[in-house]
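Example record

The entry below shows one chain as it appears in the dataset: sequence first, then structure tokens.
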Amino acid sequence: MHRFGLQSNTEYLQQANDGIVIVAQIETRQALENVDAIAKIQGIDVLLVGPFDLGNNIGHPILDGTISAELKDAIERVRRTADENGKRSGIFATSGEQARSYAEQGFHMIAAIADAAAIPDYFAKVLAQAKGGL
């Protein structure tokens, strides 16, 4: 695979399918209950935990940044199941510190901040700068 931008469109199109990654999002009770079967599906490369959606769906929402023991167990189950089936595991984090913690647990793909949080903060900062506030 070549680095982005260093090949022609023809070269890119000839090898593009080799770089496809299939990600299964585990965000519901049903997905959690079936995570072993999902992990066995040929072609799935990553099991991705959406902790906020999963927590809400299994009755343990993340409130005030607190992750319940039940949700922690569910997150670990997804990570362990991915490992046991030769898959990568991924998760969304809400801070750099939490991202580091997930990496130390063994997650492979970690979103260190969600776009829904990053974009408004960024635009607020830029707008404040444009108004001369920073």
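Notes for this example: Residues 69-84 form the longest helix (16 residues). The two ends are 43 Å apart (CA to CA).
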